[in-house]
Write a structure and sequence with these properties.
A hairpin with a 7-residue loop joins strand 3 (73-76) and strand 4 (84-89). The chain is α+β, with helices and mostly antiparallel strands. The chain has five helices and 24 strands. The protein has helices at 2-37, 171-176, 197-203, 259-269, 311-314; strands at residues 39-43, 57-62, 73-76, 84-89, 106-110, 124-131, 136-140, 143-146, 149-150, 158-165, 182-184, 190-196, 209-214, 240-244, 251-253, 274-277, 280-283, 286-287, 290-292, 297-301, 317-318, 322-334, 341-342, 349-350. Strands 1, 2, 5, 6, 20, 21, 22, 23 and 24 form a nine-stranded antiparallel sheet that branches. The chain has a four-stranded antiparallel sheet with strand order 9-8-7-14, with no helix packed on it.
């Protein structure tokens, strides 16, 4: 009787363990399916989108709006972006979504220029889409124009301001005005700070502020750091374009100057070869003066306009690099000053 009772107990334990393992397996599979086809989390680790997004914000990314992108790199470890094999690569395919990408959307995408990785395994970035496929974009004196219309700025956009003070600024000053970037220059009582226009307006009334000016670059001061890194274009952060954003099916005339704008698109993203011989352009070894794009492309900017790294540096985002759009902040923690502090006011803030 005792042996039978022991066997019965062992069977119950094995059955319980089996049920738990099944439950865990099902939960993991569901999480993977949800992450691929519906939602994922993204952690903000830098200040390029301040003040819209803060380092330590945990963002819910909605993949349903634009349509979920089916993984191209088939063999990869779930939730571990750096663990994968390139043995099997599927062509790009996206399930139809509920909406198109719109101007002003906060979009998550894979960084286009990491050519040593599959496109769906490249570093993920979150920035603001300001121009969509087919648009003509221009930046003049820091103002963004799309199709010749001034689109204004997001209310939390930051710029670089030169601040001259009567006395040195204390830590209390930076805390009071929530200033996290910038500092003193080589000159005494002269600071370069990255702040919003609202903050700059507040500083004018501070008794310690002697003068405050928005820092601007002169037209033509651009150099090789800015897209398309060409001697034919002297664009900068403040003066950029005009430039046409490539659109699927749209034909563009090519010449020895504008080929610099679209060479990466044509070669790297759409798998062609470009050669220039005797001042003539050859596409896949055939002389040409035009090209028809195969995909839609997008142009993004950081909300921290003078301290970001966006399309002004590296160009267009192909549609197959788009992951989804930012929905809301589900958690936020401030890890500055070697301490961890919950930002309760940012929890469940919609974006």
């Amino acid at each position: 009787m005792k042996k039978a009772a022991i066997k019965k107990t062992v069977k119950k334990k094995k059955s319980a363990i089996s049920e738990w393992l099944k439950a865990i397996f099902i939960a993991v599979v569901l999480l993977i399916i949800i992450r691929i086809f519906a939602f994922q989390s993204f952690i903000v680790n830098d200040s390029k989108m301040e003040s819209t997004l803060m380092p330590g914000d945990y963002i819910v990314i909605n993949k349903l709006n634009y349509g979920a992108r089916i993984p191209s790199t088939l063999f990869s470890v779930p939730f571990m972006e750096k663990s994968y094999s390139e043995l099997v690569q599927l062509p790009y395919f996206r399930i139809p979504g509920f909406s198109e990408i719109s101007r002003n959307d906060l979009i998550l995408f894979n960084y286009p220029l990491e050519n040593n990785k599959p496109f769906d395994k490249r570093t993920q970035l979150l920035k603001r889409c300001v121009a969509i496929a087919g648009d003509t974009l221009a930046i003049t004196d820091k103002k963004v124009f799309v199709n010749s219309k001034y689109i204004g700025n997001a209310p939390d956009c930051k710029y670089k301001y030169r601040v001259i003070t009567n006395n040195n600024l204390s830590n209390n000053f930076f805390t009071k005005y929530n200033i996290n970037e910038g500092g003193i220059t080589d000159e005494e009582n002269v600071y370069d700070l990255f702040i919003t226009k609202e903050t700059s307006d507040s500083l004018i009334n501070d008794s310690n502020i002697k003068q405050i000016n928005l820092m601007k670059l002169k037209k033509g001061n651009g150099n090789t750091p800015f897209f398309p890194q060409s001697e034919h274009y002297s664009w900068s952060l403040d003066y950029f374009g005009p430039i046409i954003i490539p659109a699927k099916g749209k034909k563009v005339s090519l010449d020895l100057k504008n080929i610099d704008l679209y060479k990466t698109v044509i070669e790297k993203f759409e798998n062609n070869t470009i050669n220039i011989k005797d001042n003539k352009i050859f596409l896949n070894n055939i002389e040409t003066s035009e090209y028809t794009f195969k995909m839609n492309y997008y142009f993004v900017l950081d909300d921290n306009r003078d301290n970001g790294k966006d399309s002004r540096y590296w160009g267009f985002i192909p549609e197959n690099h788009i992951i989804g759009n930012a929905s809301f902040i589900w958690f936020s923690i401030n890890k500055s000053n070697n301490s961890s502090e919950f930002r309760w006011s940012r929890l469940f803030k919609t974006l």
